[in-house]
Structures are given as structure tokens and as C-alpha cells.
């Protein structure tokens, strides 16, 4: 099985071209190749498949083998993968509210719907940046989903492991819990992350983010990713944190998110209520996995 390892801000995945390969047990394969000691090493596995509804289809499997609905960093890398391997003929320019348009675009089918991405290329026609129209945030507790008898989950008082937290929940195609703190470097992410992820109120588990506001247009964040643990970046999570910052009057709609793996530019547009995420996509290496 030929594979390509790619990363967006250090959030790394193994990509398999399923135009050429048929993967029968992706859940098992994800666990094997993601292992950083006995496998290739990654946060998960992404299958690039043909689609009748879009240019290409993305299926994503976390390091524990569970299938996820969406991945912001993963979809940026998938767009680069598909464009540079000519798996699809790109469409025209991609418009971003209040910003310069990107010259080319692709539509990508995901488990949370069809998303449009814009591609910015260099003189060698290699993709350098990708902007993803991530869709409109979902805020209704039952749709995120979160099992709490409330109408809104904005700054909701909670307790985890006897510590008080204020929680804001958002779905960006997958579920996120955001916790604003004055300082996040000392947060025991490996302690609180799995407890929150697997709490009974989250029927599909949840991605966990601790956020520190630097200014109204800038924040830093740390992530415990559902099914993968501590990761260097989470694209959908950064979008959720942007939305949560606006809902709690902590930040503006256009912000820069500083993640351990790098920066993302975010724009929760008032014009169409969609969140736009712009960031890099990098190919690390290619190889052949002998097990399949």
C-alpha cells in the first residue's frame, strides 16, 4: 500500500489514494499505522476516495480507529493531495468575505457534508495555503450533541474532577467543548482531557480545548482531540474557539489562533454565518506499507 504522510500545523495524518487502493478494514489500519512506535506514526488515517457528489471524498479515522466526521487540518492537506496528484479538475476562484479570493477551488465530500476549499499555489503550482469554508456553527445542545437540560451552552458552569470550569460547546461538523482560562500552559491536559472527552453528557465523546485570550483578535489554545489525545493542532477546534470567543464577548470575528503547531487565520463571517479557516498544508514524505 502506497501512502503519503502530510501535516497541517503538526496535526499529521497518513493519506491513502483510494482511487488506486481498496482498504477493507480502515479502523484496524488506522490503529496500526498511527502508532508512533510500531507504525508510521500519525494522529490518524485519511482515505481519499472518488465521489459522485464532489471532486473527492474524505474519510478520516482517529488513531484509536474511530471514524470522525471532519478534520480541519486534514481537509486542507487532502485538498493539496488531490490537486497536486490531479485527482480532480479544480473549479474557479474561491471567494472569502472581506479578503482577496483564492484562484482555484475544490468541493470535498465529508461525513458532515460537502465543503468548499480555496487553493493558493506558488510558481511551481504547488499548494501553499488552503482556505476552507467550514460551514455554519451548530449551537443547539441536542445537535452538538450534549445531554444537558439547557437551551444554550455558552459559559455553562461545570465541574470535572472536582474543579470548576466554564464551558462553551459548538459543533463544526464534529463536537467541541471550549474552556477559557487566564493561563493555559499549566493546565493538566492529559488529566482533564480524557475525563471531559468521555463524560456521560457527551454521547459521541467530544474534543476538548483550553483557550487563553491574548487580545480581541488573537488567542492561544491547547487541544485534547477525541480519539487521538493531545495534538499540536485542531482546525475544527480552532473554528469552534473562534465562535466561542465571539459568543462570550471575548474576541472578534476575525482572529488568529496560535496552536502549538503554528497559526490559523479564522473568520466567522457576519455576511453568511460561515466560518472560514486559512492555514498551511505540507507533504512530509511518501512510502510503502507492506501490511496491505
Describe the structure.
This protein has 292 residues and is α+β, with helices and mostly antiparallel strands. The chain has helices at residues 26-34, 72-84, 189-197, 235-247; strands spanning 2-8, 11-17, 44-49, 56-62, 67-68, 104-110, 113-121, 127-133, 156-160, 163-171, 175-180, 207-215, 218-225, 229-231, 254-259, 262-268, 275-280, 282-288. Strand 13 and strand 14 (229-231) form a beta hairpin. The chain starts with a strand and ends with a strand. The model has no long low-confidence stretch (mean pLDDT 96).
Summarize the structure.
The protein is α+β, with helices and mostly antiparallel strands and 292 residues long. Helices cover 15% and strands 40% of the residues. The chain contains four helices and 18 strands.
